[in-house]
Amino acid sequence: MGIDREKIKQAVRLFLEGIGEDPDREGLKETPDRIARMWEEFERQREFNFKLFEEFGQYNEMVVVKDITIYSFCEHHLLPFFGKAHVAYVPDRVVCGLSKLVRTVKAFALRPQVQERLTAQIADFLMEQLKPKGVAVVLECEHLCMSMRGVMSPGHITTTSALRGIFLSDIRTREEFLKLIGKKL
């Protein structure tokens, strides 16, 4: 689908007018273009080469990258939610570069989203790309749509998980993952 810079700029200008602001005043003059450039930047981060390594095929223990900083946007209010992602997989003859786990999180997060779907998308993508014995994803995020509007109660963390393969079927594998990311059952 891609980014349409002019539509974004028009929409932001209309939004600013709609909330009673003057889009031509000094602090807002460049805002429509800034927002369009920001979304173009996000779009570039969604595309990456998911390189696999088969020469490490003998490695069959859990790989965990934890505390990945995550930023996304609630699709209901277009307000940010942010926090940490923890991703693990148990390889089955192939591994990926560790940065690819971080890039996967960012690729799915940098769009209007809900945390539940985001968690599942990351897990499903990794299952499809790696064909591992299993994948586990845990997201812990604060949602500004709850913190600064609605209930107006900051500091709450929403935790979601997606478990696939051995992380679902083997309690010991699931417990090892939770211990490694510092969580208890």
Automatic annotation (TrEMBL):
GO terms for cellular component: cytoplasm. GO terms for molecular function: GTP binding; GTP cyclohydrolase I activity; zinc ion binding. NCBIfam families: folE, PRK09347.1-2, PRK09347.1-3. Homopolymer. Zn(2+) binds at residues 74, 77, 145. Transmembrane segments: none annotated. The keyword GTP-binding applies. Coiled coil: none annotated. Residues 8-181 form the GTP cyclohydrolase I domain. Pfam families: GTP_cyclohydroI (PF01227). It comes from Thermocrinis albus (strain DSM 14484 / JCM 11386 / HI 11/12). PROSITE patterns: GTP_CYCLOHYDROL_1_1, GTP_CYCLOHYDROL_1_2. It is an enzyme of class 3 (hydrolase). Keywords: GTP-binding, Hydrolase, Metal-binding, Nucleotide-binding, One-carbon metabolism, Zinc. Belongs to the GTP cyclohydrolase I family. This is GTP cyclohydrolase 1. GO terms for biological process: one-carbon metabolic process; tetrahydrobiopterin biosynthetic process; tetrahydrofolate biosynthetic process. Pathway: Cofactor biosynthesis; 7,8-dihydroneopterin triphosphate biosynthesis; 7,8-dihydroneopterin triphosphate from GTP: step 1/1. Its EC number is 3.5.4.16. It catalyses: GTP + H2O = 7,8-dihydroneopterin 3'-triphosphate + formate + H(+).
